[in-house]
Amino acid sequence: MYIVELNYLQPLTAVDALLPQHIEWLQQHFAAGHFISAGAKQPRTGGMILVKDMPEAQLKSILQQDPFQQVAEYRINQVQFSRTGTGFEQLQHY
């Protein structure tokens, strides 16, 4: 699986202007089964997306379609969890 970290490069006013389109993009990829979870970092300096395993080129193509490309930079981390807490065992299979 991947953990994608977004870091905002623009003021929150610019981020908020693109938020409805970003949420629509997220919903498309949740519906397609690509994304596991997503949310804003606190303090609100960016966000995080948990992504199911796929070829990295496919993930990069998906990320290129995000409207937040205009206001954020992305850091992609691939991870394979070998241990999880009770109730989170399914993360070992993504």
Automatic annotation (TrEMBL):
<dbReference type="InterPro" id="IPR005545">
    <property type="entry name" value="YCII"/>
</dbReference>
<feature type="domain" description="YCII-related">
    <location>
        <begin position="1"/>
        <end position="76"/>
    </location>
</feature>
<comment type="similarity">
    <text>Belongs to the YciI family.</text>
</comment>
<protein>
    <recommendedName>
        <fullName>YCII-related domain-containing protein</fullName>
    </recommendedName>
</protein>
<dbReference type="InterPro" id="IPR011008">
    <property type="entry name" value="Dimeric_a/b-barrel"/>
</dbReference>
<dbReference type="Pfam" id="PF03795">
    <property type="entry name" value="YCII"/>
</dbReference>
